[in-house]
Amino acid sequence: MNAEQRAAEVAKRLDELMPQTIQFLEQRVPFRFLVSVILSAQTTDRIVNVVVKELFKAYPDAASLAQANEEDVQEIIYATGYYRNKAKNIIACAQQLVDREVPDSMEELVKLPGVGRKTASCVLGDIYGKPAIIVDTHFSRVVNRLGLVKTKDPAKVEKAIASLLDASEHYRFSMTANLFGRSVCHAKKPECEACPFSDLCPSRDAFLKRRAKA
After folding, report:
1. Residues 118 and 155 in one domain
2. What is the SS3 assignment for 87?
3. What is the Cα–Cα distance from 52 to 188, expressed in whole angstroms?
């Protein structure tokens, strides 16, 4: 089985196993979703989903957030961590999006404050339904353990996976692999015994041997 065949098989099984709709962040309005993704860096989606309710109650759109006092925003988003930098970024981002739609291209999205390729890919895939490989720690862990890539560098992971799958599968695979990493292929204690990829995973035996010695 070559790399493309392995990737296709993994994508097929994940598509069948995982829910048809996967959304980690609750906000559906493009601007609010973008802000939520910016805030999600180095924290959990659960915390973000709680925090943004208060944030958007105070500042419901780009125009209002653009005029916000930075310290007031810091106080609201404190629980997300890195709150000073995040407050600065989301206010600056809002200022650039007053009377503008959230961009629908990677080139334009990454020009916004606080927006890197991962954040841009989330917007492209979730909001605009465009091909997007979203590389976070869960996704990277899964594709590395399954032998689809041999690198932890996000840019290299993105490029490698994009080359293995048809563009129409990119976003769906990003979400199913991510959810699989959160629910089964955990960082410290992956559920190898019940893993649906037992026959494909080159990492399984090493984890099971390590567990047996513990």
Report:
1. no
2. helix
3. 30
